[in-house]
Design a protein that fits this description.
The protein is built from 1 helix and 12 strands; from the N terminus they run H-E-E-E-E-E-E-E-E-E-E-E-E. It has about 220 residues and is mostly beta strands. Helices cover about 10% and strands about 45% of the residues. It has one helix spanning about 1-30, and strands at about 65-70, 80-85, 90-95, 100-110, 110-120, 135-140, 150, 155-170, 170-180, 190-195, 200-205, 210-220.
């Protein structure tokens, strides 16, 4: 009985030692790393503000600018256009077609380009910027969207294309604004092609008899 007791006690001590050792190992083991918090989702980028549409500089009307056009279909379809005076948003533009000189005063704003004064046989070259308005021809106005239209001097103006291509002696111009003018007699029309930063690059006049007269940009000088 004496040795049996000692054996039992030894087993109990060994078992206790194993239990304590295991418990110590458990207590000394490093705690599991905390689960990282999910990264916050990035906020969506703010939508960029749309650029305000403006016609300023669309038809460069700085004093000294010049455009020369090569014509087909009639003698006076070729002409030279020059800006000879500028003050604020008013610009005096002459058109010399070899037979006469026409003077126009154009008013430029972010919303429109308007011909407010016109004089034929203007050979003096004098400053006409202060002349009172005698016409009100809206050459171009916003929005520059296909289908936009307006009535000016009883004629119907409509933007028929905003991505027109024009191939002229001065080069190839892509992304032009094409404006069709149907005259009040409804028998003739004209299409102007404007390129931003350049001005008018081509015009096409369809007469009441179906003849086509064109003026195409040959060269230009912009200040």
């Amino acid at each position: 009985m004496k040795y049996k007791y000692k054996g039992s006690l030894s087993l109990i001590l060994i078992a206790a030692f194993i239990i304590c050792t295991a418990a110590g190992m458990v207590s000394c083991a490093p705690a599991p790393a905390p689960t990282p918090a999910p990264e916050p989702e990035p906020l969506p980028e703010p939508e960029p503000e749309p650029e305000e549409e403006s016609l300023i500089g669309f038809y460069p009307l700085k004093e000294g600018n010049m455009w020369e056009y090569e014509g087909e279909g009639m003698e006076y379809a070729s002409f030279i256009q020059k800006v000879i005076f500028s003050a604020g948003n008013r610009h005096q533009v002459t058109i010399d077609n070899g037979g006469t000189v026409i003077a126009n005063v154009l008013e430029e704003s972010k919303d429109s380009i308007v011909n407010t004064y016109r004089s034929g046989e203007e050979f003096s070259g004098g400053n006409l910027l202060d002349k009172p308005s005698n016409v009100n021809i809206i050459m171009l106005q916003t929005p520059l969207e296909k289908g936009s239209f307006w009535i000016s001097e009883e004629n119907h103006y409509e933007i028929i294309n905003t991505e027109a291509d024009a191939i002229v002696p001065a080069g190839e111009f892509k992304g032009c604004i094409a404006v069709k003018v149907t005259f009040k007699d409804q028998t003739s029309n004209m299409i102007y092609y404007y390129k931003q930063g350049i001005g008018m690059v081509q015009s096409e006049f369809r007469t009441d008899t179906g003849d086509l007269i064109t003026s195409k940009l040959k060269r230009y000088e912009l200040k």
